[in-house]
């Protein structure tokens, strides 16, 4: 592992820019100091989707949910079928297997992921037009917007071949998009491959934290929030039928292949899936003209949240990027509220989880340190970066939140990164933190069953 430094800057479009680092090696953060990566600035003329000043924005976006809503979000989904790795039939248990690039195990995992989202999918009619916002002026005459049928959680597979130190290999990324017609996406991403080791016993490397548990966490988030996403989309359709379109941002799950190096980590032997997908999405969708900016699929990404090396107890989370410091703070505040409101102590109330969580959850939470390291007054917003699947997207100006344990888990890239490295309570907490943070980001709170009664109870003082 060789140290690198990345400097971060902002372009005129408001997005962080970075060029490729000049040295090699994935970098961990130590207890005493941070190893930082040096990034120079890209062309500052990058422009994504533009919004006119006369547009009306949805005030529900990025709004802190009510205390009452924390329990409503907790009750959205039973995490047992996805996250309980003690249950051999759970999704996480089924992917706790060696799954290097091109292996049958990895192919079987992709089938599981596709089946997971197929079970969540539905058909719905959506407005044809793709305006980002409701027009601030009343239309001169009523004219319904034409509709077309789509399937939610649309799967796009991205297959390609790449040269590796072990010869040409085939890779496949999976992209699941709840509303494929929405012009903006919040991306939750993780890599699906486990590191390749040629000889036993290391060739049985499972990669429980790297990155089976992160994949399972974001798949549980998608499952829990699908009813809210469906309701929001139906709400947007009603606006479309009235001749208007609401601000449209959807949830997208990106499962990346080939994150791991086959031999030594380098800019050519790592991040295969991320590099190719970012390249594909960066291709222009139209030729720039005097009146139109360039348009690329990658510009639809509102924020890109990457999960990695999660699932072991007591992770330390640090903020790495100035531009998304507000999003890191949002996750930190969500975790603090869930701890303060004792919401994390509710997991043993789920019978199928109680046996595995034991009787010490409340006591453990009293001594538990927060995952997210809150910034103190006077501290810098960003502390550096670690090479991971986000880099090709960062280099194209995409806002990044990197959720990775730093320092790395002690089992990193060892045969001990297996089921025994995981902590069920920690994984459940990661899922709930993420669900609340995404509900806030996408403005989904108003679609919670029981939200209105809770809002009345919290906002109206007792008589």
Automatic annotation (TrEMBL):
**EC category name:** hydrolase
User: EC annotation?
Assistant: 3.4.-.-
Composition bias of kind Polar residues appears in: 13-22
Q: Name one GO biological process term.
A: proteolysis
Which keywords are on file for this protein? Acyltransferase, Hydrolase, Metal-binding, Protease, Transferase, Zinc
Peptidase M28 domain residues are 177-431
Entries under InterPro entries matching the protein:
Peptidase_M28, QC/QCL
Q: Name one GO molecular function term.
A: peptidase activity
Q: Does the keyword Zinc-finger apply?
A: no
Location of the region described as Disordered in the Swiss-Prot/TrEMBL record: 1-24
Similarity annotation = Belongs to the peptidase M28 family.
PANTHER family in the cross-refs = GLUTAMINYL-PEPTIDE CYCLOTRANSFERASE, GLUTAMINYL-PEPTIDE CYCLOTRANSFERASE-RELATED
Instruction: Supply the name of the protein.
Output: Peptide hydrolase
Species per Swiss-Prot/TrEMBL record: Puccinia graminis f. sp. tritici
């Amino acid at each position: 592992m060789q140290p690198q430094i990345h400097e971060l800057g902002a372009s005129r479009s408001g997005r962080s820019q970075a060029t490729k680092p000049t040295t090699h090696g994935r970098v961990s953060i130590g207890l005493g100091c941070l190893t930082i990566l040096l990034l120079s600035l890209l062309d500052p003329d990058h422009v994504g989707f533009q919004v006119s000043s006369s547009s009306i924005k949805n005030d529900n976006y990025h709004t802190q949910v009510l205390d009452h809503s924390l329990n409503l979000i907790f009750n959205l989904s039973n995490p047992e079928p996805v996250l309980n790795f003690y249950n051999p039939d759970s999704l996480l248990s089924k992917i706790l297997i060696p799954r290097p690039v091109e292996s049958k195990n990895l192919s079987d995992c992709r089938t599981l992921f596709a089946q997971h989202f197929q079970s969540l999918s539905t058909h719905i009619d959506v407005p044809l037009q793709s305006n980002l916002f409701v027009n601030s002026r009343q239309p001169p005459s009523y004219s319904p917007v034409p509709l077309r049928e789509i399937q939610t959680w649309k799967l796009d597979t991205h297959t390609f071949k790449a040269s590796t130190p072990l010869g040409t290999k085939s890779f496949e990324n999976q992209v699941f998009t709840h509303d494929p017609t929405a012009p903006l996406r919040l991306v939750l991403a993780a890599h699906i491959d486990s590191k390749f080791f040629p000889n036993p016993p290391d060739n049985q490397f499972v990669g429980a934290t790297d990155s089976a548990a992160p994949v399972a966490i974001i798949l549980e988030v998608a499952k829990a929030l699908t009813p809210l996403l469906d309701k929001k989309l139906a709400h947007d359709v009603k606006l479309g039928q009235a001749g208007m379109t609401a601000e449209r941002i959807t949830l997208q799950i990106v499962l990346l292949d080939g994150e791991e190096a086959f031999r030594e980590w380098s800019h050519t032997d790592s991040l295969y899936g991320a590099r190719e997908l970012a390249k594909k999405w960066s291709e222009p969708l139209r030729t720039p003209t005097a009146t139109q900016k360039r348009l690329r699929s990658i510009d639809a990404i509102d924020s890109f949240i990457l999960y990695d090396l999660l699932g072991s107890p007591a992770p330390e989370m640090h903020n790495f990027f100035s531009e998304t410091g507000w999003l890191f703070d949002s996750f930190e505040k969500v975790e603090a509220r869930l701890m303060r409101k004792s919401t994390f102590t509710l997991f043993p109330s789920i019978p199928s989880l109680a046996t595995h969580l034991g009787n010490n959850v409340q006591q453990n939470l009293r001594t538990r340190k927060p995952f997210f390291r809150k910034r103190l007054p006077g501290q810098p917003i960003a502390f550096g970066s670690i090479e991971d699947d986000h880099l090709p997207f960062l280099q194209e100006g995409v806002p990044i939140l990197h959720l990775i344990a730093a320092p790395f888990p002690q089992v990193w890239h060892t045969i001990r990164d297996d089921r025994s490295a995981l902590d069920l309570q920690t994984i459940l907490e990661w899922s709930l933190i993420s669900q609340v943070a995404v509900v806030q980001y996408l403005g989904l709170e108003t679609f919670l069953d029981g939200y209105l009664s809770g809002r009345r109870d919290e906002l109206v003082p007792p008589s």
